[in-house]
Structure formats: structure tokens, C-alpha cells
Design a protein that fits this description.
- The protein contains eight helices and no strands.
- The chain is mainly alpha-helical.
- The longest helix is centred in the N-terminal third of the chain and has 30 residues, at 24-53.
- The protein starts with a helix and ends with a helix.
- 6% of the residues are buried.
- The model has no long low-confidence stretch (mean pLDDT 75).
């Protein structure tokens, strides 16, 4: 993401020549690292969203709060937390899916920008062929959307 942001900045600030002359080894390293880690990255994104936004998370947090003795100065005593949990939307599962969808959409958006920038750099064919096709990533992202239903 930082590569995309920095390179886009250079392109929009009029320094397009500098952006195109980015070190090929750096771009190649990003491509190879992404190729090796993107599937685990998707899994991690899904796990983080699930851990923090799924209804089961809030139930576990509520149960933990009920078991702990109340601290007199605590803003989040069990009564306050119980009220917060019970006022959460009934469609929390849908909210969880929407958050995951937005995170994965952002992931796809940055990857598409990365691919566009790689095309501007004119890498050798041996490096360019290592770029994961966007359709492959979309296919995997769709699996996560189905998994969460």
C-alpha cells in the first residue's frame, strides 16, 4: 500500500518521470513478496474482521465482562457494557459481512492500482509474469464472501 500511495503521489505531483524510474529490484521484491503472501493476507484480514466484529465476539466480551469484578472508576462496568451489547443492531451478522466486504474491496482497489503502476514501469517479462492476475484475486475474495454467510 505504501508503494502505491507514494507512487501515485509522484504521478499526480508532476514527477511522473521519477515514478517510472523506480528501482526495478524494489518493485520486483514487492511482486514476489505479494505472490508469496497474498492468500495468507486475505485469511488474516478475514480473521481480524471476524474476531473484532462478528456477533460471537461481542457475546464473548460481554461474558468476560460479567465475570470480572466491577471497578468503581471503570467507564465500562458490566451494566454499561450490557446496555451497549443489547443496543447493538439485530443484524450484527450483516454488519460483520459488510465490514469484511469493504475491507476486501479496499484490498482489491489497491491491488488494481498496483497493477496499473507496474504497467507504467515497464518491467521485464520475467518479472511481469509473476504478477497475480486480478481475476484470480477476485475469485479468492468471493470465496470469503460466501464463507461468511
Amino acid at each position: 500500500m505504501s508503494f502505491v500511495k507514494a507512487t501515485e503521489f509522484l504521478l499526480t505531483s508532476g514527477d511522473a518521470k521519477e515514478a517510472v524510474n523506480i528501482d526495478e529490484a524494489v518493485v520486483s521484491g514487492i511482486i514476489m513478496d505479494f505472490k508469496a503472501t497474498w492468500q495468507n493476507g486475505l485469511e488474516t484480514l478475514s480473521e481480524i474482521v471476524t474476531r473484532n466484529f462478528a456477533p460471537e465476539h461481542w457475546t464473548r466480551v460481554y461474558e468476560e465482562m460479567r465475570r470480572k469484578p466491577e471497578e468503581p472508576d471503570s467507564k465500562w462496568n458490566s451494566i454499561t457494557f450490557a446496555t451497549a451489547v443489547h443496543t447493538l443492531p439485530a443484524d450484527l451478522q450483516e454488519t460483520h459481512r459488510e465490514i469484511l466486504k469493504k475491507v476486501l474491496t479496499q484490498f482489491l482497489s489497491y491491488y488494481q492500482k498496483f497493477q496499473q503502476l507496474v504497467q507504467l514501469i515497464n518491467l521485464p517479462p520475467a518479472v511481469s509474469k509473476e504478477v497475480i492476475p486480478r481475476q484470480t484475486i477476485i475469485y479468492e475474495v468471493k470465496k470469503y464472501g460466501k464463507k461468511e454467510k
